[in-house]
Design a protein that fits this description.
Shape: elongated
Structural class: alpha+beta
Strand order of the largest sheet: 1-2
Strand content: 15-25%
């Protein structure tokens, strides 16, 4: 078994160097494909991180405080009472740098030609240390 394997390896090695240009071209193609794969994966994961960071910084942040049952029936009148008191307690938590009290709702804009539905977001930022 070992003798047969040794013979196969010798034949394979000889076959590789029988056509050195073909062998080097194959190695170059594999190297290029592997480098392209690594580049594309890095670009993909980097763009995912950038999209997540951009979305979090502009819209909701890393977490939200909502009234119980709001996600089941999102209504504009489902607000949280004493937002200032909650934001003051949260701003004392170590690691929280910025808070934003937000109100989300939908509205209708109309012109002579067309009507559009829009999302309205009201933001009141609260910076730690104010």
């Amino acid at each position: 078994m070992a003798k047969k394997m040794n013979m196969i390896l010798r034949l394979a090695w000889r076959n590789i160097w029988r056509h050195p240009r073909r062998s080097l071209l194959t190695v170059a193609a594999i190297t290029f494909a592997a480098a392209l794969l690594v580049f594309m994966l890095t670009l993909q994961f980097g763009s995912y991180d950038m999209m997540i960071d951009n979305n979090l910084s502009v819209l909701t942040g890393h977490f939200q405080v909502q009234r119980a049952g709001y996600l089941d029936k999102p209504k504009m009148r489902s607000t949280i009472a004493d937002v200032q008191q909650i934001s003051e307690k949260m701003s004392k938590i170590n690691g929280i740098n910025n808070l934003a009290v937000r109100a989300n709702g939908f509205a209708l804009i109309a012109s002579e030609e067309r009507t559009y539905g829009i999302q309205v977001i009201g933001v009141e930022t609260i910076t730690k240390g104010e």
